[in-house]
Amino acid sequence: MSGYDEPERWREMATGLRGLRPEPPPTLRPGVLERVGLADAWFSVGGPAGPLLVAYNGRGISATAPAGDEARFVAVFLARHRRPLRRAGEPPARLLAQLQRYMDPGARGAPPRFDLRGVSDFERDVLRKTAEIPRGEVRPYAWVAGEIGRPAAVRAVGGALNRNPVPVLIPCHRVVGSDGRLTGYAWGVPYKRTLLAAEGADPAELERLGHRTRYLGSDSTRVYCYPTCHNARRIGPAQRVAFRDANAAAAAGYRPCRRCRPPAAG
Amino acid sequence: MDTPPELPARLARDLDGAFEELVRGHERLLYGLALRVVGNAHDAEEVAQDAFERAYHALAGYPPERVAAMRLRPWLARIALNLARNRLRRRTPPTRPLESADGEPLPLAAPAGGEPAAVAERRQDRELWVELLAGLPARYREAVVLRHVEDLPYAEVAEVLGQPVGTVKTHVHRGVRLLRVAFEARKETLAR
Questions:
Q1: How near does any CA of chain B get to the CA of A86, in Å?
Q2: B72-88 pLDDT, tens per residue?
Q3: pLDDT digits (tens, 9 = 90+) for A113-122
Q4: Which long-range contacts link A95-102 to residues 24+ away (Cβ below 8 Å)?
Q5: What is the ipTM metric for this complex?
Q6: What domains appear along chain B, each with residue ranges and CATH number?
Q7: Nearest chain A Cα to B173, which residue?
């Protein structure tokens, strides 16, 4: 045991062990906050009318914007959500693939999850209903209002869609005026027109039809539809009958389509 | 880096408002603990993040009185330790690591000549201890890391490991003794 200096030996060991406390990587904390939805990250993905900025956290997609002004996207996000937003270190592969499938007309991908905290119950109902409108079809504001059981709240539906935090992905561009006009879009009516055209809806045709023809019927099935309904597009030219309102259709002995659910006579 | 005494109460009142402080206050502990168990920086970061994520959801589900009375540090360390052990168990046998256990790239040859001697010495010293610790049996290593690397008191180490304090002390002492033997052996080889 000669020369065996216990305390000295232990000091050396203790110092060595205590020197092993590593600095956590700078990505650790933001990653945690994003996973639990207290912070968000954004990335860019190709959309139907040009690249799209997408913000997301562990609860789902929280915001979208047309690419081009990233600084503004971040500023608007901060003002609305009051959470930090950073550029994603690497685009999240699974979410990216899911979005691409969802926006690909041929792929019929499932919608991604959305983070709709901060959206009122009414607004949530409006957004959910709007998400049901199939690609390439449009419905009037009044249809959304009626479907969610608030037929008098047509203007409020417009307001809710104007505040849609995730345009394009929740397709508020598929909601139009009762006369077919492309009224109002948070990113500008031209963007709405481009989106609809990209989906195969013909915006010019919608507006031309709109002020006289609200519904199309088939004189073989005696069913009337919204003009963009999948069923309406299958009506041959010889069977096609135009109606300017539900009462006219009812008077002619037609019933509303069960798929696109236009209003019944009243 | 003790938990600020008022943090549990703040978490109970406003989880979203106080959660970042919980992460800030415990990320070193959880990352360091995970790193000593799983042995590489990438997995350690994921383990620490998983642990905080679980903690968040658990806290969101607990009644406020329970959150306010929690002892956060040992609770968090225990979550991280369990996740780290699980990850280690299901991992395929490691090939030669490309990173040192501290997450820095392993030098392919001798360190660059420009490195100041003191820095090089500190780095070599750290690598030596990483290696010696990695050679300990897991139960001793976990106890030694919590007590002597992370500096937790014995009572908390016992809480983290779910063992009586006496057992923990035994494991720490045996671990330290094994470390000392290995350390002496290494110093003799280096001296020669």
A1: 16
A2: 999 999 999 999 999 98
A3: 999 999 999 9
A4: A95/A56, A95/A61, A96/A43, A96/A45, A99/A45, A99/A54, A99/A169, A100/A45, A100/A46, A102/A169
A5: 0.83
A6: 1-91 (1.10.1740.10), 113-192 (1.10.10.10)
A7: A10
